[in-house]
# Entry
Amino acid sequence: YYRIVTLPIPENIQLEIGGLAVLPDGRLAASTRRGEVWMINNPYLKGSGQPTYKRFAHGLHEPSGLLYRPDGSFLLSQRGEITHLVDSDGDGVADAGCASISLRARS
# Structure
């Protein structure tokens, strides 16, 4: 059995979830249809704490899948490509210019 938890979401954040990834430290990464990836701290509402949200990436094209990698990066599927999101400077935000792999058919 799984415990169902309803997270309070700030009014200025639209979480239309396309992908989820649980991180080893207990955070939850969520990709949204609106092209963002959010990091959610305390998603299981442990103790009396509330979750906090930080935008990790934006400007993506309807991401629908999210995979956390052991090196701390993410692979994200979005329209027509797979994108590698990396935070190499440790500021909690994906770096600009992350690598993408195109999945377009050749004609």
